[in-house]
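Cross-posted from the bioinformatics board.
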Amino acid sequence: MPETATAPKVKVPPFGRFFLPGPTEVLPEVLEAQVGPMIGHRGPDLQKLMARIQPGLQDVFRTRRPVYVSASSATGLMEAAIRNGVRRKVLCLVNGAFSERFYKIAVACGLEADALEVPWGEAHTPDMLEDALRGKDYDAVTVVHCETSTGVLNPVAELARVAHAAGDVAILVDCVSSLAGAPVLADEWGLDFALAGSQKCLAIPPGLAVGVAQEHMLERAAAKKDRGIYFDFLEFERNLEKGETPNTPAVSLLYALAAQLDRLREETMEARWARHEAMARRMWQWVDEMRGRGIELSILAREGYRSPTVTTIRPPEGWTGPKLAAALRERGYIVATGYGKMKEETFRIGHMGDHTVAELEELLGVIEEVLVL
Amino acid sequence: MPETATAPKVKVPPFGRFFLPGPTEVLPEVLEAQVGPMIGHRGPDLQKLMARIQPGLQDVFRTRRPVYVSASSATGLMEAAIRNGVRRKVLCLVNGAFSERFYKIAVACGLEADALEVPWGEAHTPDMLEDALRGKDYDAVTVVHCETSTGVLNPVAELARVAHAAGDVAILVDCVSSLAGAPVLADEWGLDFALAGSQKCLAIPPGLAVGVAQEHMLERAAAKKDRGIYFDFLEFERNLEKGETPNTPAVSLLYALAAQLDRLREETMEARWARHEAMARRMWQWVDEMRGRGIELSILAREGYRSPTVTTIRPPEGWTGPKLAAALRERGYIVATGYGKMKEETFRIGHMGDHTVAELEELLGVIEEVLVL
């Protein structure tokens, strides 16, 4: 082959320290991994790349099933969940903006859907689900593991048990902002379909989604005659058998994913979960400390239902989410305002991806400075 | 902001000269453009990027309409075409693998669909379409502008006229391997929906699709109650009004697209079309020259229906598509075997993207060497 290898200079423009609950900061070496050569997407080159990725993804989901890789955002695989996984009627557990999106997708796909709503900031308990399923003919339940809008972590393992105890009810789980930051044990918990995006705790650039379906879901999918092909479970399966993707893959993002999965293997999932847990604990402790000093911050989610990956906080009087986010941006720190209807009354800190407690500490110091000024 | 800018060394591994009909070779500066910082996908950072991209895309499609940018491969927007653009029953013009895919998608979306088939290598003429529509209740027609499997360029402008003359029949056009290589005049030709992918003549990495719908199509879409949200025309429109995308965008690929559209503006679309035309003419002339020397190559597509972007060729006796592709690969040149059922009996050369006549000449010299050995 001709020597066309070069070592071009790539400038990463200056950017603030990123504490959004997605997209997260991506390490320079992972960003740079995107700059690989084009390869044909049928045949050995792609197969090699997919083979490198697959074991890492299986570890992230703790599954023995093949993991689908979709050239789409996670919303695409939410639609896949609905089109493949709902026979007729679905119950959507709604406690924030993303769980509401699941409901909207079900409706937009022409299915019967009911929303079981609790206020933003609260979780769905197993009892609630048990009551809601009793005597009803739902064949699927949607739930968001970590509600990125509120920082609530739903008790997905327990909810899955309740769904399955109710009969042939599939549980379809959005793990977008939990996967690779909080334990997601797809097989052990019996998640019938679990999905996530690339730009949260996986910490690669956006544009990829990953998902895993339990084997019995394939029969369910096959019976759906209007599921399309782009998000078809059976197409994913058939092509994964050859180590390929059904459609043209986003190769640059696969390169980044491969590089990042190598890093994750070195860190181990257990250590990654522990690091997120440590960041969250420091986050909560800091809010207590601030309150002790008379700065009235409060965490939206109740204890016991707080996500290790994102915290939604009400700012003290005189502040709004956008005002605080703007003040921090001026100092080079990017946090999120509240989401949707909570935009003004909250702000959100993503302590996810490759961040460390030390980096979070730096951010907390700056917030303290801003609030005390 | 803190100075976190660095100039890391990125290695582009050695690769052969790429003459696939997609993915095409991507210029190093375009590959490198992918390595930009993460940005939030709601608000000014993304809006600025989208505003930079939009005029270039409108020029590529020759449209005044907003151009949708989808985090998916082009197949995703083919599904969008079907889910939004077909009321009930669609006629699919099938003359190769990708036009057949359009038919399969329609069926997989639960719609009534008929395939009007002509042999691979032939085009659909306006007369054929007129006959097929007469007295039938189709509300849409699908067609592939350039059949990447055969190198046939369908007369899309004329087919659009025939469809519209037949009443309220929408024409849904896959311009995947023609856009930015052959003229696609979406508004002038009245293409009701036209779509393409990023990794063909646009010559950026795969993972993005672009599409443009005429305004009257929005009403059609609104009446479809199971069109989902990921590929919903109305979601694309609503978000483009704010300069955003409906779902998390593939930001790295948007950076590459922005860089490449800057290059295209400098080249001008007219010059880009002319360059592709010149490559194709040289390609065809070379086949004649080879035949003159007794090497029996033949072009699958008939004169008058040949694409300026890809040529499908039957090799001389003793050769198959895979055998020739393998021999060229050994010499560092990547061409495609035949596609699907024509894998053995043909090979395909993509003369598209940023290739020049001089680069094509280099490839042709090597093929000559291989065949004459």
